[in-house]
Amino acid sequence: MRKTFERHPGIPVFCAIVLLIVVSRWDLDFSAFHTFTMSMMKETVSGLLHPDWSYFYDGSSEDVFSMMLMTIAIALSGTAIGTVIAFPLSLLSAANLWPKHSPVPRIGKVILDILRSFPELVYAIIFVKMVGPGPFAGVMAIGVHQIGMLGKLFAEEMERLDTAPVEAMKSVGANAVETFFYARLPQLSPIYVSLILNHFEIGVRSASTLGLVGAGGIGAPLIFAIQARSWDKVGIILLAVIVTVYLLDIFTGWVRKQLR
Question: Least enclosed by CB within 10 Å: which of 12, 38, 102, 187?
Fold first, then answer.
């Protein structure tokens, strides 16, 4: 048996995984599975595959089209706030910008770690309690989370930067401000824009769920439709989210190609 394990090291790993699955089964409650029926599954799938197109646009501000536009606006505003604040924090967190003051980037990275430790949904719950339900709470939730995420990525790109142009400018007498704007920033701008666009896409998906806690967007009608078991309305909402994310992916991909 020992020789078999030595020849096949994957066997102990497989056994350990199986053991973890068995142990985890003891703490899970599967009692709700008894309420599952094939007719219930058939009704749900049938409703999702036959979306209620009349709910997509009816001229009110509560239809899917209007709420999807609000969701995009929440994500765009939140990403803009996150970008504006993340950029200066990333400068504090980049170790190569503070070679003689090592505590500065450490403090900056701790701040960014704290901000991105909590998901947008947690921030949304907090801001709903602070400013009340509505899109503003969603914007703030996405914005605060994006500060931590974008700030970390900006700082990492700054630290990986090619220093040859910077050293060349320093050799002819350029100061720190001049080297930043004429040697560092031109290299980083396309990368930063790509990161911002990527997190805008992520923000749209996140904003689609923030309405579940009252932070505006398409999440509110989605949870109402699910609670009412209106699967045809759930179907049109999910379809709108899928199409929106797909179109945004095409658009942001086109922008990235133009920046190369």
Answer: 38
In the chain, DSSP assigns E strands to: none
Q: Looking at the domain that runs over 53-259, which CATH code has it been given?
A: 1.10.3720.10
Distances (CA, A) of 20 to 4, 151, 206, 234: 22, 37, 31, 36
Q: How far apart are CA 221 and CA 212, in angstroms?
A: 8
User: How many Å from the N-terminal Cα to the C-terminal Cα in the chain?
Assistant: 57
Report the predicted TM-score, pTM, of the whole model to 2 decimal places: 0.80
For 256, counting Cβ atoms within 10 Å of its Cβ (0-12 exposed, 13-18 middle, 19+ buried), the class is middle
Domain boundaries, the chain: 53-259
The percentage of the chain sitting over the pLDDT mark of 70, rounded to a whole number, equals 90
Mean pLDDT computed over 167-176: 83
Q: Which two tokens stand for residue 193?
A: 């824009």
- The HSE-up count of residue 257 (CA atoms within 13 Å, CB side) is 6
In one-letter notation, the amino acid at residue 258 is Q
| Separation in Å, CA 185 to CA 38, 61, 165, 191, 222 | 59, 42, 11, 10, 42
